[in-house]
Amino acid sequence: MGSREICLPPFHPFLGFDMWRLLSDRATAHPDRTFLTWHPFEGEPESWTYAEFHDESLMVAAGLVQAGVQPGDRVLIHLENCPQFLLAWFGCAALHAVAVTTNARSSQDELAYYIADSDAVGAITQPSFEQLVTAAGPNLGWVAVTKPDLPRAPIFAGSADPQGVHLPPADPAAALSIQYTSGTTSRPKGVLWTHANGLWAARTNAAHEGLRSDDVHLAYMPLFHVNALGYSVLPSLWVGARFVLAPKWSTSRFWDIAVQHGCTWLSLMPLSTRAVLASRPPDEHSLRMMAGPTGSVFKDRFGVESIGWWGMTETVSHGIVSDGHDDVPGSIGRVAPEYDIKVVSADGTPISAGQTGALFIRGVRGLSIFAEYWNNPTATSESFDDEGWFATGDLVRLNLDGTFSFMDRAKDMLRVGGENVAASEIERVILDVLGLGEAAVVGRPDEKLDEVPVAFVCVENPDPGLADRVMDACRDRLADFKVPREVHVVGALPHATLDKIHKVELRAAVVADHEALLDAERGWVAAAAADSSAAAG
């Protein structure tokens, strides 16, 4: 299983339990209660009770068995938001197969990497991605294609009997899922969750959210992200609540969907936050809680409480979360009681109130913290120190009231419209075009998407079509949101030392006007000439 066997403590909250047993228990306890409502943008909404969802997930499990899937096998799920995504995910969970969930906007090159790295045995996808998946995974044993207009149609053709499926005994240490997340390396890392991790997300996130069985989560973020799956779907399952799944965010449809289905809970990202704050809420809405900026803004405008939090795929739940006593507007909350948190300055000493430092978190591997980076023991070991502290790469400020405010990310990470993008992923593609040369990608602030990638390239004797060739390569090999919005061909790049590109200067340059950018480039060229002279001397 990846680089090691998962070893949980001898006693923990989920002994004798796993994700399939959770779904089965809920289906037995209240079979006729609605679990999932699918609200497509075309066509009528459709709902699944707990019993229906359980039975249809078991049908997927039967199809997987018929395809030869064994416990521990990895199964690629490459789908946009749809009920079949979740049916496939839970079908894998029933068998202790490992769901490999990938970004639906991935390029062929990216998808080929995910398939090879996870050693997926097969894939579940939709018609619009079938050609992409088969081209990216020519060695896949099988590819099952859904019927998007018929969400209740079986994913697998044939007559597999779900009642005859032999399910493995509950094992919370069994691998559950792999979710690829961008980091500062040249390739995304596969974050491995165990069944105990999934159960932790369900139980702990429900507690942090104060979720009740009569709540209705509106889930619109991609299911291949931790927010939708871990913060909306699984907590709803834990408390026996309902959630509404939408294909994606829609500013024009948001209030209509929320009112129609009596939605009470909404998790926001920056784009949707701005859209909601700019809207006029209907009097009859049922929202009682929004996860987003803390303070009085949502209470004043909509009569809705708000909660702040901080978490990442690796932390499973929120290491920092609001408790209703947050005095600093926009804060992300206080230390969650389930985790250890430390924030240190550059010299490793703890910060004081008013200071900013690097955020570290500690939990139990395979339970409250992810198990490992799949197939990457080096990255796993480098992410934890000898005392078990996980380096998040984020910077936070400790406020005077004991809350934290998020300040920045690892400097080479971009946040493009809710997507994490490693600058090095884009640079790798550009350097393949350049051959001998330098490339650097930084984020430029953007009103709609928070920031967008901008590339700087430097080669000797560049040809006039270089920028176009770089853009063509990026469009061919990267998801659309990772493609640079601009490519600047420059005579030199700024360096903090002879070896390291000074991205602080590049970030300043991308927000400057054209003349200021030219002035900056002249300075970089002069500095490079001086460095060359000094090195020669």
Protein traits:
globular; Luciferase, domain 3; alpha/beta; single chain; seven-stranded mixed beta sheet; 537 residues; Rossmann fold; GMP Synthetase, Chain A, domain 3; 3 domains
Task: Count structural domains.
Answer: 3
Number of β-strand runs = 26
- Taking Cα atoms only, what radius of gyration do you get, to the nearest Å? 24 Å
Major beta-sheet overview: 7 strands, mixed
Shape field:
globular
Q: Going across the major beta sheet, what is the strand order?
A: 2-1-10-9-11-12-13
* CATH architecture verdict of the largest domain: 3-Layer(aba) Sandwich
Amount of helix: 25-40%
Q: What is the C-level CATH assignment of the largest domain?
A: Alpha Beta
The CATH homology group name of the largest domain:
ANL, N-terminal domain
What is the averaged pLDDT score? 91
Can you walk through the features of this model?
- It is a single chain.
- The protein is built from 15 helices and 26 strands.
- The model is unreliable at 532-537 (pLDDT under 50).
- The radius of gyration is 24 Å and the shape is globular.
- It has three domains: 19-307, Rossmann fold (3-Layer(aba) Sandwich); 309-408, Luciferase, domain 3 (Roll); 413-536, GMP Synthetase, Chain A, domain 3 (2-Layer Sandwich).
- The protein starts with 18 loop residues before the first helix and ends with a helix.
- A hairpin with a 7-residue loop joins strand 7 (175-181) and strand 8.
- It has a seven-stranded mixed β-sheet with strand order 2-1-10-9-11-12-13. Strands 6-5-3-4-7-8-19 form a seven-stranded mixed β-sheet, sandwiched between helices.
